[in-house]
Amino acid sequence: MDAQAIIAKRIARELRSGMLVNLGIGIPTLVANYLPEGVNVFFQSENGLIGTGPIPEEGMGHPTLTDAGGSPVTALPGASTFDSATSFGLIRGGHLDLTVLGGLQVDAQGHLANWMIPGKMVPGMGGAMDLVTGAKRVIIAMQHTAKGKPKILEKCTLPLTSARPVDLVVSEMAVIGFPGGRATLLETAPGVSVDQVLAATEARLATPENVVEMPL
Amino acid sequence: MIDKRVKSIAEAMQGIKDGSTVMFGGFGAVGHPAHLIDGLIEQGAKDLTLVGNNAGSGRVEPLVRLLAAGRVRKIICSFPRSAGSVVFDELHKAGKLELELVPQGTLAERIRAAGAGIPAFYTPTAYGTALAEGKEVREINGRHYLLEHAIRADVALVEAYQADRWGNLTYKLSGRNFNPIMAMAASLTIVQSQHMVELGDIGPEDVHTPGVFVQRVVHVPYGGPASNLATAG
Question: At a CB cut-off of 8 Å and minimum separation 6, what does B147 contact?
Answer without folding.
Answer: B120, B121, B122, B135, B136, B137, B138
